[in-house]
């Protein structure tokens, strides 16, 4: 539960008042939250159901996609999830030091080089802590999770009882524009703040029982939903939509400052720093796990799965930290905005969400996935057999989650979909090398078609970059 809440309640909740108001009025925001709540809850249920139906698949989120659609699709989902986590890390750290820059001279948005150095130093310090083992990492995450929830709870109580105005909340209730367009605009922001609900599934191999994975997922989701909706909707009752939309990234601090004065802004800024630090720890843990799991399963070189004496996957953590460092340099040289990092990371996270939902649908309809990763290794031949009523319920959940994830791809900016395809292409190199070393067939026909689509989308992205028509 702490891993889910710690990774989900990160930077997004603190920028949520501004993000939501820039896209929608209170009425459309409520509709957007209702759709997101149902959609993301269905995705949470997908992971909970799969944890029960296929308890032997203990390699996290990517293992469901691999079992359902084959090696390469599973690998691409795991690789995309890893890259999304890397980009999220850079976004978290950027917001952390931009906020800290209001109080500490020499860092922040006006000092990009110093901020980049500070982000790099933080990344390597956390790597040093995580390399000491899973128990120490879990303790770090639990402490920061509890610490950051206190300022958020203070915000909700103070705004609800001291600053909320029903007249201000209802003054521009529908936002003065097409409601559907507003709802579509807010959807990616609501998805971003929910990213992390799969945290228990990613670490499912560490759980004592599979039931713990499902319970942690659902309880963590409901807790996060209550926090996010409270912060988002209460803010409309403090400032007008136009005022909220004009706030900086740490808009939650500005809202509380409008209610109780400067000390409220300082309190939330402290909460943001604690929250982002906690999310940074959580996501740097999650960064390494997909790489290590894919190495255990033979989809990446075995050395990526190396474990040190403390039980930490140090090789995967080291590679993740190095790539985070490279991404910091690229993004800071390119002056990439925090919001662009959010949208690109969200698109990459949607891939395992979409394919995990598809796998559940295939299980309920066919009893197995499309293709097994290796001859003689049956991924779908064990686990409890659900009753016909349970199977129908599981099918409904899978179809709802699949529809929601597909619609999110439709609603996403095409630029970030193209850049997402470009980002996963380098993973072909270690994947193909590993398959050739094992004397195994690299792609089947379905996988070859997927590779062709990715290469085509990546080529369009490169062409757009070269012509200046696409940029982050």
UniProtKB/TrEMBL annotation:
GO CC terms in record: plasma membrane
InterPro entries given in the database record: AA/rel_permease1 (IPR002293), Amino_acid_antiprt (IPR004754), APC_superfamily (IPR050367)
Short name of one Pfam family: AA_permease_2
Source superkingdom: Bacteria
Coiled-coil intervals: none
Keyword Transport (UniProt): yes
Keywords from the named record: Amino-acid transport, Cell membrane, Membrane, Transmembrane, Transmembrane helix, Transport
Membrane topology according to the record: Multi-pass membrane protein
Signal peptide: none
Listed NCBIfam families: 2A0302
PANTHER family reported for this sequence: AMINO ACID TRANSPORTER-RELATED (PTHR42770), ARGININE_ORNITHINE ANTIPORTER-RELATED (PTHR42770:SF4)
Protein name: L-lysine transport protein
Organism: Corynebacterium humireducens NBRC 106098 = DSM 45392
């Amino acid at each position: 539960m702490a891993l889910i809440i710690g990774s989900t309640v990160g930077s997004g909740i603190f920028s949520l008042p501004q993000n939501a108001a820039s896209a929608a009025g209170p009425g459309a925001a409520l509709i957007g939250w209702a759709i997101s709540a149902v959609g993301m809850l269905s995705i949470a249920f997908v992971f909970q159901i799969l944890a029960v139906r296929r308890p032997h698949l203990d390699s996290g989120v990517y293992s469901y996609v691999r079992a359902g659609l084959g090696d390469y699709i599973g690998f691409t989902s795991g690789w995309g999830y890893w890259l999304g986590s890397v980009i999220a890390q850079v976004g978290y750290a950027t917001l952390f030091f931009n906020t800290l820059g209001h109080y500490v001279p020499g860092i922040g948005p006006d000092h990009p080089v110093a901020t980049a150095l500070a982000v790099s130093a933080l990344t390597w310090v956390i790597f040093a802590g995580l390399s000491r083992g899973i128990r120490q990492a879990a303790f770090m995450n639990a402490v920061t999770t509890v610490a950051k929830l206190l300022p958020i709870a203070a915000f909700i109580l103070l705004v609800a009882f001291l600053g909320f105005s029903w007249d201000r909340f209802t003054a521009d209730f529908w936002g003065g524009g097409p409601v559907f367009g507003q709802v579509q605009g807010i959807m990616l922001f609501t998805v971003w703040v929910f990213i992390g609900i799969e945290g228990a599934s990613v670490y499912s191999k560490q759980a004592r029982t599979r039931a713990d994975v499902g319970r942690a997922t659902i309880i963590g989701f409901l807790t996060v939903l209550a926090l996010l909706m409270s912060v988002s909707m209460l803010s409309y009752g403090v400032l007008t939509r136009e005022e909220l939309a004009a706030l900086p990234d740490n808009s939650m601090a500005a809202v509380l400052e409008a209610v109780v004065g400067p000390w409220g802004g300082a309190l939330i800024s402290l909460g943001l720093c604690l929250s982002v630090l906690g999310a940074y720890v959580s996501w740097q843990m999650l960064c390494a796990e997909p790489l290590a799991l894919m190495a255990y399963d033979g989809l990446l070189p075995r050395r990526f799965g190396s474990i040190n004496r403390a039980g930490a996957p140090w090789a995967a953590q080291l590679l993740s930290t190095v790539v985070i460092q490279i991404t910091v340099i690229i993004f800071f040289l390119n002056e990439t905005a925090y919001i662009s990092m959010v949208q690109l990371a969200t698109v990459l996270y949607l891939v395992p969400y979409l394919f995990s939902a598809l796998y559940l649908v295939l299980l309920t309809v066919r009893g197995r996935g499309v293709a097994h990763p290796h001859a003689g290794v049956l991924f779908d031949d064990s686990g409890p057999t659900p009753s016909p009523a349970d199977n129908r319920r599981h099918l409904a959940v899978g179809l709802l989650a699949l529809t929601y994830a597909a619609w999110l791809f439709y609603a996403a900016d095409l630029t970030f979909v193209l850049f997402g395809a470009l980002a996963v292409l380098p993973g072909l190199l270690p994947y193909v090398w590993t398959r050739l070393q094992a004397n195994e067939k690299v792609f089947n026909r379905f996988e070859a078609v997927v590779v062709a689509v990715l290469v085509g989308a990546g080529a369009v992205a490169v062409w757009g970059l070269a012509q200046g028509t696409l940029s982050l």
